[in-house]
Amino acid sequence: MLAALLLAGCATPSWLCLAPPGPRKVTLIATPDANANAAIAVDLVLISDKLAAQQITPLAAEEYFVRRAQLERDFPTGMLIRSWELAPGQIERDSPVSPGCNRVSTLLFARYASPGAHRQVLQPASAIVVTLDAANFTVSP
User: Fold this and answer.
1) CA geometry: angle at 96 spanning 120 and 43, to 5°?
2) Entry pTM
3) Residue 86 maps to a domain
4) Which pLDDT belongs to residue 21?
């Protein structure tokens, strides 16, 4: 009972978090005309800090990429970023990801040359497929 009380207000201890929910594998598919035939940066952002989630979730991709270095300094333990850059026609299969415990939110940002939010809040899934096309992306479990 004492242990339960001690854990009630704390984050999940790592020894209790054997299989955290969230993507463990990511496949990225850039169509031949992705991003108007230009390379595209993609970030998977795993957020474990509520304040970080409040500040990052509303950002459009372009603003996120401009502010990313400062966000990493502001929340050094509150977020984990997995980054890729793909050329049109490139496929990155089953990239491993460590979702971690106590995640508040998982976001995907893609840096397109075209205007738009290019951001998506991801639902829990152990594997996702991201298809990057000419002007936007889709995510499927």
Assistant:
1) 30
2) 0.84
3) yes
4) 61
